[in-house]
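User: Let's play a game. I give you a shape written as tokens, and you guess the letters that built it. Ready? Here's round one.
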């Protein structure tokens, strides 16, 4: 795992200390151990964990300086991309949000072991926002839903002037085109699609800037978001 990280970081223009690499590997090992009793990831080979979870998560640091910023990871699952970002940038203030209580309990247990101080919340994204609207500099999310749906869950959390960064795959441009109207309705504007290598594949990040407040009517209940996307 450590060798794969050390080999892959230069392609992303990133450098981590030996201690940071060790903490990432420790988190990866804890993930694989827990995965034997809880479904946390379909990726179980250590090199693949390093490549498809860690390097993929860290890639956005090529474009976005997260130092000192309040970051929310919406639909974090087993802690991606938020946990690797917090290990790489200890100055960021991280909130990990997921609807599954058992995942959040596990994160609360293991994050102190790898030196990550994060607020871990078990709640639905469209409900937690009621008390945390426009309180974050950056919202990140990876592989949760198509961008037009995901934007309605994430953009309400972002301050005007902040960013929503969606980690996507090959269909990023198509999803961005589909979501453009929704993003505009929600107070955002697509500012770029960033490409980066992960193994033999090219992954992408859709960058959305928050240019005005999200109307209070959003987000709707998720059933309505799915039934009638913006």
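Assistant: Ready! My guess for every position:
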């Amino acid at each position: 795992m450590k060798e794969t990280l050390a080999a892959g970081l230069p392609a992303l223009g990133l450098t981590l200390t030996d201690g940071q690499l060790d903490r990432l590997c420790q988190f990866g090992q804890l993930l694989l151990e827990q995965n034997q009793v809880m479904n946390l990831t379909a990726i179980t080979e250590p090199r693949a964990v390093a490549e498809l979870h860690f390097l993929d998560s860290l890639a956005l640091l090529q474009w976005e300086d997260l130092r000192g910023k309040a970051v929310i990871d919406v639909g974090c699952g087993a802690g991606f991309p938020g946990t690797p970002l917090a290990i790489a940038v200890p100055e960021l203030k991280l909130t990990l949000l997921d609807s599954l209580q058992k995942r959040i309990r596990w994160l609360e247990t293991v994050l102190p072991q790898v030196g990550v101080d994060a607020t871990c919340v078990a709640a639905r994204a469209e409900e937690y926002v009621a008390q945390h609207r426009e309180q974050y500099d950056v919202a990140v999310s990876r592989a949760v839903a198509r961008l037009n749906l995901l934007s309605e869950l994430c953009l309400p959390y972002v301050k005007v002037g902040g960013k929503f960064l969606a980690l996507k795959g090959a269909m990023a441009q198509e999803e961005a085109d589909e979501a453009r109207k929704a993003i505009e309705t929600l107070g955002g504007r697509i500012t770029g699609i960033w490409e980066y290598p992960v193994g033999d594949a090219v992954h992408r990040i859709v960058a959305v800037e928050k240019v005005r407040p999200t109307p209070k009517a959003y987000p709707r209940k998720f059933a309505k978001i799915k039934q009638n996307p913006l």
